[in-house]
Design a protein that fits this description.
The chain contains 2 helices and 4 strands. By secondary structure, it is of the alpha/beta class. It has one domain. Strand 1 (3-8), helix 1 and strand 2 (30-35) form a beta-alpha-beta unit. The mean pLDDT is 97.
Length: 75
């Protein structure tokens, strides 16, 4: 099952949220959103894992996520 990693920073673009919403409807797709420092959590579909850089995620863990994801999108 594909794992998609979205890296979000403020301000979060509406088209990023639309892409995440579309991908959340794909069966078997796992979505993780990493919020960069100073970025408020936008409304996201249920089932999307949210991590906040420097709060709940170290830079080393971020690298692990990047290299383990099938697709990484930085907004």
């Amino acid at each position: 099952m594909p794992h998609v990693l979205h890296l979000l920073r403020a301000p979060v673009p509406e088209h990023a949220l639309a892409a995440i919403e579309r991908q959340s409807r794909d069966p078997g797709t796992t979505l993780t959103v990493v919020l960069r420092e100073g970025t408020d959590a936008p409304p996201l579909p249920s089932g999307v894992q949210v991590r906040r850089l420097a709060d709940t995620l170290t830079y080393a863990e971020l690298l692990d996520l990047i290299f383990s994801a099938d697709q990484v999108i930085s907004w």
